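testing teh design pipeline on a random one, pls ignore if ur not involved
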């Protein structure tokens, strides 16, 4: 992060405060993140991105979630653009990285975390509905509350869908894009995935917010409870079934052996149903969601568990998850 960007961001959000330390964090693949501490002011997190629109959208979404729900997120202190670089400043929220802590929690606390993620997701689905599926963007124009075509984050930009698509069309495109990115280790499953995506996909009302990276690795925990959910970049609107399938996979299946997922799965679904009825998760929804978790933005196979397993074990984990999704054995 350049000094100019950091200085402008801090001048807008901590005017007159003198930084005493700057600590880079390795969070996020498309932005730079730093923790800045001061002698007499609370510390902040400064993020910057070469895509100012993405930073603006994340700031608008965080502000909307903070204003409209009880999902714990860092409320933006300010955002802006310096020389083509977008910046966002939020308070530093204390807590242990849940990615590291999840397997150390006792079983009751792990179920509590899974239940909280389910409840948070349903709360987001109830709060944010859109006119079509696709990528979200921050729009300065007022939201059309009468038709419900946009979500309104109070004062400031509204959120709307760029090039909204029909739900079934979007699920197929989303799933096919991720199926095409799978490495050769998955060649024997690729056609089964595409077959699932060609099957019938029912309607599920208005598309809802799809936080596609909604997982313990982007959360903090203290005393067994989630204190913050982080990293809301590049949000999407999608059918609830895709969102439920993806979050359930990242919360329930990612950290514990398949034989131990039952209590966590029940807790996640109970948490969701404490707010809203659980949507139907169709074969195409689950196939697309699980396929989207196999490789990262750079094309490398993602590593489940903590500590993370090696590539061979990761490939076997993803193959087993895809087979379950295609067979419907997680329903």
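output:
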């Amino acid at each position: 992060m350049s000094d100019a960007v950091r200085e402008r961001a801090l001048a807008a959000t901590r005017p007159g405060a003198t930084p005493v330390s700057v600590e880079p964090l390795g969070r996020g693949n498309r932005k730079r993140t730093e923790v800045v501490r001061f002698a007499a002011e609370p510390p902040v997190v400064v993020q910057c991105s070469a895509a100012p629109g993405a930073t603006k959208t994340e700031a608008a979404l965080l502000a909307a979630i903070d204003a409209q729900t009880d999902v714990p997120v860092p409320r933006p202190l300010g955002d802006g653009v310096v020389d083509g670089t977008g910046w966002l400043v939020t308070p530093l929220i204390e807590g242990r990285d849940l990615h590291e802590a999840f397997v150390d929690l006792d079983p009751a606390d792990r179920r509590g975390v899974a239940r909280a993620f389910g409840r948070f997701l349903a709360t987001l689905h109830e709060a944010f509905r859109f006119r079509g599926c696709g990528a979200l963007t921050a729009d300065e124009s007022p939201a059309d509350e009468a038709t419900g075509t946009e979500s309104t984050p109070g004062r400031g930009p509204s959120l709307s869908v760029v090039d909204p698509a029909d739900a079934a069309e979007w699920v197929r495109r989303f799933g096919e894009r991720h199926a095409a990115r799978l490495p050769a280790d998955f060649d024997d499953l690729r056609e089964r995935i595409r077959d699932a995506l060609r099957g019938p996909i029912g309607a599920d009302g208005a598309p809802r917010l799809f936080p596609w990276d909604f997982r313990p690795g982007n959360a903090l925990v203290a005393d067994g409870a989630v204190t913050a959910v982080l990293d809301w970049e590049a949000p999407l609107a999608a059918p609830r079934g895709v969102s439920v399938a993806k979050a359930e996979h990242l919360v329930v299946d990612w950290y514990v052996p398949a034989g131990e997922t039952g209590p966590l799965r029940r807790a996640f679904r109970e948490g969701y149903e404490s707010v809203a009825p659980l949507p139907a998760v169709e074969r195409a929804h689950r196939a697309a969601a699980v396929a989207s978790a196999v490789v990262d933005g750079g094309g490398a196979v993602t590593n489940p568990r903590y500590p993370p397993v090696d590539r061979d074990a990761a490939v076997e984990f993803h193959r087993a998850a895809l087979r379950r999704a295609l067979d419907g054995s997680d329903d």
